[in-house]
Design goal:
single chain; alpha/beta; Rossmann fold; Arc Repressor Mutant, subunit A; 2 domains; five-stranded parallel β-sheet; 8 helices; about 40% helix; elongated
Length: about 250
C-alpha cells in the first residue's frame, strides 16, 4: 500500500497515524479499517522504513508500533521517533508479560494492546490518545512571517501564498530556531547544536542541504531567499518582518 499524506486540519478524525508492523496482513487490515474511520494512514514494514518515512513526510499525530520486529524492535523505533519529536505511541505485541508492558508504558508509550486484539478496542484507544493530545496540537496558531508566509510549528507545516506545505522534522526545527531568534544571525555551529540530537551530530554540509530543501518549499525564489538568509562568514538569519527584502548585499550562498 502506498504511503499517503493528506492535508492536516484541526479535526482529530483527520489525524495522521503511522502503522509500523512487519506483518503485511496486519498493516493492510489496519490501514483499510482506520481509513474507513476517517484517518490518514502511513505504513512501514520495518523500523528503518518508519524512521525514513517520518524524516521525509513529517511527524504523524500518532504511531502504532509492533514490538517484535526484525532489526529495530518497537522499543528502538519509539526511542528514535521520540528524538524526532513528540509523537504519542501505542504498542501492539503478542508479548503479554507484565514486565514488557510496564517497560513499554513507562519508557515510551501511551498505551499497549496485546495481540490478538479486537479492532474496536484498538480504535477506542486511538481515539482516547488523540483526544488527549489534540488540544496540545492545536493550541499553537499559525505564526505570521509576512503577508505571504505563515508557519505552524506544532503541526509542522508552512502556508505560502495560501498553499499548505508539509515540513520535515529537521526543516521544522531549523525554521523554529530561526523564528525565535528573528533578526539575529545564527552560526552553523549554533544551529547544529540545536537542531540535531547530541548522539547523532549533524555536519555543516547536512545543514546546508536541509536549508536548501527548506528554501525550495517556502521561498518564492529559492536562489534569492527572502526568509532564510545566508550572511557571508556568519550564518543564517530570518529577518524581522519590517526588514524582509532589505540589505540584499548581505545575502549569498556559503
Amino acid at each position: 500500500m502506498d504511503n499517503r499524506v493528506r492535508t492536516i486540519n484541526n479535526n482529530h478524525d483527520s489525524a495522521r497515524i503511522l502503522v509500523v508492523d512487519d506483518a503485511a496482513d496486519t498493516r493492510l487490515m489496519l490501514s483499510l479499517r482506520l481509513q474507513r474511520e476517517g484517518y490518514t494512514i502511513l505504513t512501514a514494514g520495518s523500523g528503518q522504513e518508519a524512521i525514513e518515512l517520518v524524516a521525509k513526510e513529517g511527524l504523524p499525530d500518532l504511531a502504532v508500533l509492533d514490538i517484535m520486529m526484525p532489526g529495530m524492535d518497537g522499543f528502538v523505533v519509539a526511542d528514535e521517533l521520540r528524538q524526532m519529536g513528540d509523537i504519542p505511541v501505542i504498542f501492539l505485541s503478542a508479548l503479554s508479560d507484565t514486565n514488557t508492558k510496564v517497560e513499554g508504558l513507562n519508557r515510551y508509550a501511551e498505551d499497549y494492546v496485546t495481540k490478538p486484539f479486537a479492532f474496536s478496542e484498538l480504535l477506542a484507544r486511538i481515539r482516547r490518545v488523540l483526544m488527549r493530545v489534540a488540544p496540545e496540537r492545536t493550541l499553537e496558531p499559525e505564526l505570521q512571517i509576512d503577508d505571504r508566509l505563515r508557519i505552524n510549528f506544532s503541526q509542522q507545516y508552512a502556508v505560502m501564498d495560501d498553499k499548505q506545505i508539509t515540513l520535515t522534522p529537521t526543516e521544522n526545527r531549523i525554521m523554529n530556531i530561526l523564528y525565535h531568534n528573528r533578526g539575529r544571525v545564527l552560526s552553523p555551529g549554533f544551529l547544529l547544536s540545536k537542531v540535531w540530537d547530541p548522539t547523532r551530530k549533524g555536519t555543516v554540509e547536512s545543514l546546508w542541504v536541509h536549508v536548501r530543501r527548506l528554501r525550495s518549499k517556502i521561498e518564492p525564489d529559492p536562489d534569492n531567499p527572502r526568509y532564510v538568509l545566508t550572511v557571508r562568514g556568519q550564518g543564517y538569519c530570518l529577518p524581522q518582518r519590517n526588514q524582509i527584502d532589505r540589505e540584499p548585499t548581505l545575502v549569498q550562498d556559503m
